[in-house]
Amino acid sequence: MNKSQENQQLDKIIRFMEFEANEIEQNIDTQSENDFNIKKNEIILKGKLKIDQLYKKKTKFMNRTTATMITKLMTNAKLEILNARDTFIKSVLADVNRELLKLRNHKSHYLKILRKLILQAMYQVLEEKITLILISDDMECVDLMIPELSQIYLANTGMNIEINIDNSIKLPNQEIGGVIVTAKGRRLLVENTLVINNINKIKEKATKELLYRTLLVYFCSIPIISQNLITYSTVVAAT
Q1: E strands, 121-222, where?
Q2: Whether 62 contacts 233, CB under 8 Å
């Protein structure tokens, strides 16, 4: 083998070694990049899991806090509604009481109402012997009214009736007017006073109407409160 052939052979060996070296280098680079990507993905996955856990924990905490805040707001709103309702009803009842007191000054009109109240209670008792409990100011007028009451009762029920006025018991003055009709030794009793008969009806009607209006306003406002709290909790949890 001459010098030229030796050089050619040596060049081939060098090129082969360079090729092998480049290939090994590429394999090392590829493997390193793969290892890096795997490690990077593992770190990212762990970070995501940690963030998800933290987010869920914050969300759960904020949901509990939101529910507590909503419950507290609802309770406070209910208390305010009840207080406002009671104040309003007391004011209405006071006005009604004053108006009913004025009614006693119109004697003829009041006596017509009193006669109707007595007859109404008599029809509820439906007995042949009754006793009337009145306020002291009405006893004389009602005593004169007894024959008329008996005739009206007989015409409407076909029953004769004995009407007595109880002098031992009288209605308190705050009752304003009206009657309590008793029978069978007070085992039967119908209370038909102006305070009981009318004011309670007004109170019941006012309570129902006020409760309806307040609940309507209250429940219409709750979604707004809840939505604001939920929006707030979402923003806080996201941060």
Answers
A1: 129-133, 162-165, 178-183, 188-193
A2: yes
Task: Give the Cα separation of 19 and 109 in Å (integer).
Answer: 126
3-state secondary structure of 177: coil
Alpha helices by DSSP H, 104-171: 107-125, 139-157
Strands, sheet with 178-183, edge to edge from the N-terminal-most edge strand: 162-165, 129-133, 178-183, 188-193
Report how far residue 117's alpha carbon sits from residue 103's, in angstroms, rounded to the nearest whole number.
15
Per residue in 181-201, pLDDT tens?
999 888 888 888 876 455 555
Taking the C-alpha atoms of residue 94 and residue 88, their distance in angstroms, rounded to an integer, is: 10
CA distance 164 to 186: 13
How far apart are alpha carbons 122 and 183 in whole angstroms?
10
Is the whole model's pTM more than 0.70, yes or no? no
Q: Going by DSSP bridges, is the β-strand pair 162-165/129-133 parallel, antiparallel, or unpaired?
A: parallel
**Beta strand pairing call for 188-193 and 129-133:** unpaired
> Which pairs with CB-CB distance under 8 Å and at least 24 residues apart come from 12-19?
none
